[in-house]
Amino acid sequence: MVNRVILIGNLGRDPEVRRLENGAVVAKFPIATNENYKDKSGAWQTQTEWHDIVVWRTLAERAESTLKKGMGVYIEGKLTHRAWQDQDGNNRRTTEVVGSYFRIISSGSGGKRDGSDAGGGYFPSEDDEIAAPNNSGPVPEEAPNQADDDLPF
Asked: Which domains does the chain have, with CATH numbers?
């Protein structure tokens, strides 16, 4: 089974950071993702979804020192659900992404690192160094393609 979430979006506000009694650090922040589509009349529409992100320990400290409202970020994590009672005794539920990795992909102030919209850019960017595998052995041959009539659909 897999519980994995990957989001690319913009921070809605600076991270809210707390230090717990046991010394653990937790940071919370929302990010917005956009989906563009054409409606029935042919006009472009944008649908924005907000996602609550939680990061812990050294990742929370890094978020506190580097993340700012408006920045474009790439986030990996897992989807979680929590239930609690508010101050009035009402039962509440929330869905959050507990982040295990994040990377800044744009500054949010107009100076985009990857030269594109943070919601629709390519990852990694052209500026990133990509390490090639260090294999000196022979390159395996590709498997032969199946004929189209062998496909199950």
From this structure: 5-116 (2.40.50.140)
Q: What is the pTM of this model?
A: 0.68
- Classify the C-alpha dihedral 129-105-68-8 as positive or negative: negative
Q: Could you please report the per-residue DSSP string of 62-82?
A: HHHHH--TT-EEEEEEEEEEE
CA dihedral 37, 40, 44, 47 (to 10 degrees): -50
| Residues sharing a CB contact under 8 Å with residue 117, sequence separation 6 or more, in sequence order | none
Q: Number of C-alpha atoms within 13 angstroms, CB side, residue 102?
A: 33
pLDDT tens per residue, the chain (153 residues)? 999 999 999 999 999 999 999 999 999 999 999 999 999 999 999 999 999 999 999 999 999 999 999 999 999 999 999 999 999 999 999 999 999 999 999 887 544 444 334 334 444 444 444 333 444 444 444 444 444 455 454
**CB 31, CB 75: distance < 8 Å:** yes
Using CA atoms of 7, 8, 12, 15 in order, give the dihedral in degrees to the nearest 10.
70
